[in-house]
Every structure is written in C-alpha cells, then in structure tokens.
Fold:
Amino acid sequence: MDWNKSKTIFIIVFSIVNVFLYHLYLNKLTDAQNVQVMGKTPIEELLKMDNVTYDELPPYKNDQFYMSARSMIFTDEQIDKLENQIVEVSDETYLQSELNDPVSVLNEKGDFDFTKVLSKYVLNGAEYELWTVNEETRQALLFQKVKDNPIYFSRNAMLTLHWNEKKEVTNYEQGMLEEFGTFNRKKDLLSPIEAIGNLYSRGYLKQGSKVKYMKLGYSTHVQVSETQVFAPTWHVRVELKDGVIEDYFINAIEGMIIELQHEPLEEENE
Structure:
C-alpha cells in the first residue's frame, strides 16, 4: 500500500468535508440572522422594502380546530332521488354520473353559472364552492365546504363537472365527507399578515408581487383508516410582477407550506 498516496487522499477528503461543514454553518448563521432581523423589523416594513403589497386582509376568527371526517357512503335511496342521470358508485364513496339530457352552464349573459346543475342534479350541491373553470379541458372543479370553509384538493370532498362544446354539462364525479368532528389545539391560528410573513421569510414572495386574495379553509393532514384529519389552512393567491398567478397553502396552526395539487381523474389517466 502506498501510504503517501493514501495520506494525500485522506487530506483531500477531509478538506472537502470541512468546506461542506463550513458552508452549512454559514447557511445556518445566515438563516439565524434573517430570523433575528424578521423579529426586530415589523413584517409590514419588510414587505414595503421589497414592494410586496396586499389588498385588504380578510377578517378571521381564532376558533378553528383540526377537523376529522369520514367519506360518505352513497346509498341507493340517495341515488334514486337523482334525476336525469345514470349513476355508478365506486367503493361506495365515489359517485360517477352521466346526464341523460345535458344541462347548460351559461346564464342569460353568457357567463358560466353552475347553480342549476348543483341545485337540481347534484346531491347536496349547495355544499360545494367553485375553485376553477378550465375552458380548454371543459371542466369545473369545486370543493366541499364546512361552515363556508372549503376543503382544498381532497378527492373525497371534490366535485368535478364536465361539459360538451355547447357548454352543457354531460357528466360529473363526486366525493363527499360527513361525520365532522374537531380536535383541540394548543396554538393560536396564524393571522393573515403572519401567513404572508411566513411566505415572505421563506422566499416565496418576490419583489413587486401582490397578494390578491386570502381565504381560510382545510387541507388533508393525515388519514387513519377510514377517518381523515384536516388542518386549518390559509389559501394565499399571489400575482407576480410579470402577471403570473400563483397559489400557496399554509398550515394555519403549524405554519408549514403545504404542497397541494389536483389528483388526476381516472379519465385523465387513460
């Protein structure tokens, strides 16, 4: 064994490790300094320095809890009451329907209006609120509400409407939750400005961006067997300097940024 050669290799390796550890130390030191600066400087001033603006912040009550729920089992009795449609149910909890006679989703002004479809053809349709309309894919995505708070991107609390080239709804998929309960919490909810500050401190709010909209809802926290637990969640919609719109979700108790996305439908996987 060439000891001199081995010693040289060890020296190089240890040097690389030392550089790496020093780099980690500098990063942690910088983060700590940033936290100290954030602690000393009001978030409003920091946002103003970077020209990050926001509209009037929403009122909120500091009384939200972690929430539990179970998927609704659709019964034959419920299905029999649905008019003008052929219904199939998967795993007892996921309803797929095809309308015999398509129903228009346009109002007299030619704008999208799903009121008729929700009130007449969807089970408990009034419990859903519109999230987005995609004219390219001819789909509308709606979320189930709990006391006017939407449950974001849970397949078990989601309604998806599909329409044809005449803008008439032809079919839909529905999941629904029931048996809601709450869990005690030890921390206060993040206020709207604290949620914005959370995004800013993590580098999500760039210079010149604007917070356009905020709403408190729920997102999936954990699923245990058939029971799901949902966390209070701030939805923050941001317009970047170049006009691009981005949506962020923040656990309103723990402050974590949550990555949420639309789970593909079976039809989209084909």
In short: The first strand starts at residue 53 and ends at 54. The CA atoms of residues 58 and 164 lie 37 Å apart. Residues 5-38, 263-270 have pLDDT under 50 and may be disordered.
